[in-house]
Amino acid sequence: MATFLYRLGRLAFRRRHFVALIWLALLTLAGVGAVSAPAAGNTSFSIPGTEAQKAFDLLEQRFPGASADGATARVVFKAPSGEKMTDAGNKATVEKTVEDLSRGSEVASVADPYTGRAVSQDGTIAYASVRYKVSGMELEDSSRTALNEAAQQARDAGLTVEIGGDALQTAPQTGASEVIGIAVAAVVLVITFGSLLAAGLPLLTALVGVGIGVSTITALAHTLDLGSTTSILATMIGLAVGIDYALFIVSRYRAELAEGREREEAAGRAVGTAGSAVVFAGLTVVIALVGLSVVNIPMLTKMGLAAAGTVVIAVLIALTMIPALLGFAGRKVKPTGAKSGLLRRGRPARQPDRPNMGTRWASFVVRRPVAVLLLGVLGLGAAAIPAASLELGLPDDGSQPVSTTQRRAYDLLSEGFGPGFNGPLMVVVDAKDSADPKASFTKVTEEIKGLKNVVTVTEAQPNKAGDTATVTVVPDSKPSSTATEDLVHAIRGAGGDIEAKTDAKVLVTGSTAMNIDVSQKLNDALLPYLALVVGLAFLLLIVVFRSVLVPLKAALGFLLSVLAALGAVVAVFQWGWLSGLMNVEETGPVMSMMPIFMVGVVFGLAMDYEVFLVTRMREAYVHGEKPGQAVVTGFRHGARVVTAAAVIMIAVFSGFIGSSESMVKMIGFGLAIAVFFDAFIVRMAIVPAVLALLGRRAWWLPGWLERALPDVDVEGTALHTEQPRHADPDERRELVQV
Largest alpha-carbon pair distance within the chain? Predict the structure, then answer.
């Protein structure tokens, strides 16, 4: 592989105009496709195989036109102090609001509070339920505008009005976080390379790759039913790996120049060595993202596949566009150790014989491996302790900031009707096979009334055929509580007994039940997903490092960093530690998607750092250095670059911590702390300590496996058999001056 990539790098360097033209054409083509493609709207959402989804599907069949999975809104009214909602003036205002809400083209129904018994016992709070024909993600902006305008008119009349439900749900918006991440990346790259031009190359190529990837997603969004969250994930991952991969190749190119090679040769060797690591690092990320399909949630599968496609583009750009741009840059990209005139300002360069920080740190770890290993493992183990108390769930309006109307509506409903009113359960009774459907409906309501944690059970509402009915159940606990989850399981358990006696099937659905089912589905998929991703990557790393213990160490280190990161998430978002610093207004269960999402994204990035750092150690070992010295050599060449890559990623993810959305804030914090743990504790401390302790055994591979594995030559052994081409006299003088 190294030889092939070496030739590819030299070809791209020589034919740089042609390569640049190809990528520019692809970017233009993707951009034109994105602009000319029909509007995608919002993606549909379904969870195949769950009971809640089966109930929704059944309602669509038996209650045609009822929009069972349509968006809902609760417009909550509170009377001024000393007044009641039943007063004539307040009642007239509410009825006028209900009339205005009914005019929307996407509105399926609006329930009047006074005819639907939706006024609190003390008469101070009432609510109107609005049901739409489409889901919250498919709702037009005009419907949301009409909803807000109707509420504002009631406010102008003197009432306190807040809006809850998923009708106000909008696609996540990207803001300044990406700009902040790119700005930090630029600063880190300038410090790393000491050159504005060299720093600009990774940023430029990463933006080109993200532009092609996101534009392609936008162009195909209508055809493939891709949501806006798909492009957001692709942007995050594309920027992350795009900068990383280009960073490593440019860094290796400058190192090759410092050894005296002419520029085309240096570009070829950079792509042949660092490019090989890029290919396998990219494969690990692709495996992690494509593996999300095992969860069997269509939206998550599409997000993973789209992001994986963006990663493939980033790899191809790093292998071809980077050497082409290096060819355009010429001597403006300096060898390692040489600063540009703008940054150096006449100061002498650091003496080449002086060990850099990576060398000094690695030398310390090699001398004290046991102490460093114990300190690193114990530190991450302590951080992982809170993960034992992990509670998973999906966020509801109760987790919103108190400044939002959804949260204020949630609090008003809790005040007037109890906390469970924010998450009613819809029980669907399928009595098509029952001999007496009406008796079955009655039996279900009686059974549910006898369960614990039940406040209200409505009468069964049958369809026109009389073979299916819905029953609304209001729990005594808030939607995200474990008590509500226990009630859902209790109703389903009672449904089994009812079916045995009456042949009527009982299904529980609604947003609360759907959240519970999604959480369970993600929990069940976590171990198979982890086994698939880690197992495939383990096999891939065996091929890369030609070792059994090094991939095993990489996988165990990753698991340790993820557990520590989950522990930190639990401590902050579930226990409330440092909640003021993180501006966490409401603690509660950790988002159920967080563990599997963190495993996928962090695993890919962690294996990037593992491949780039350990490949250089493997290269030094293969070329004759002792194991301990190979570790030091790997750090001398790779520690600075890996550190820069990790700092950039932490900055990008940390930008999302400032979001007002608790889910986005949690993802940003979790990914940032996971990258910190993995890059600086696992890869920079535990990995060299373990390799120092193992010595030559780290690179042991059984003979039969050695013969069975393909020789991909990631370390570029074949390149060292060729006669190196050295720099011309002018470049030698340039290097001597450095």
Answer: 98
Q: Which residue has the higher pLDDT, 184 or 719?
A: 184
User: 314 — phi, psi (to 5°)?
Assistant: -60, -40
Look at residue 338 in the predicted model and tell me its pLDDT. Answer: 62
Whether pLDDT at 177 is above 60? no
How sure is the predictor about 46, in pLDDT bands with cuts at 50, 70 and 90?
A: low
Task: For residue 165, give both structure tokens.
Answer: 């439900």
Tell me: pLDDT of 384 over 90.
yes
Is the C-alpha dihedral spanning 714, 715, 719, 725 positive or negative?
positive
Structure tokens at 460: 């069964």
> Does residue 616 carry a pLDDT above 60?
yes
Kindly indicate the confidence band of residue 735, based on its pLDDT and cuts at 50, 70 and 90: very low
| Rounded-to-integer distance, Cα 356 and Cα 720, Å | 25
User: β-strand 392-393 against 590-591: which pairing, if any?
Assistant: parallel
pLDDT at 579 over 80: no
Give dist(CA 522, CA 533) in Å, integer.
15
The predicted model scores a pTM of 0.77
Q: Which residues contact 450 (CB under 8 A, 6 or more apart)?
A: none
Residue type, 473: V
> Which residues lie below 8 Å from residue 116, measured CB to CB, with a gap of 6+?
129
> Whose CA is closest to 49, among 294, 262, 254, 356?
294
Q: How many CB atoms lie within 10 A of CB 505?
A: 21
Q: How far is CA 534 from CA 278, 285, 529, 559, in A?
A: 18, 11, 8, 9
CA angle 267, 270, 271 (to 5 degrees): 90
Q: How many residues does the structure list for the chain? A: 738
**Nearest 5°: phi and psi at 435?**
-70, -30
Q: Average the pLDDT over 473-481 and give the result.
A: 84
Q: What is the DSSP letter of 726?
A: B
What letter would DSSP give residue 468? E
Count of beta carbons in the 10 Å neighbourhood of residue 724? 14
Mean predicted confidence (pLDDT) in 625-653: 83
3-state SS string over 334-375?
Answer: CCCCCCCHHHHCCCCCCCCCCCCHHHHHHHHHHHCHHHHHHH
pLDDT of residue 410: 87
| SS3 state of residue 470 | strand
Which segments of 74-138 does DSSP mark as H helices, in order?
88-101
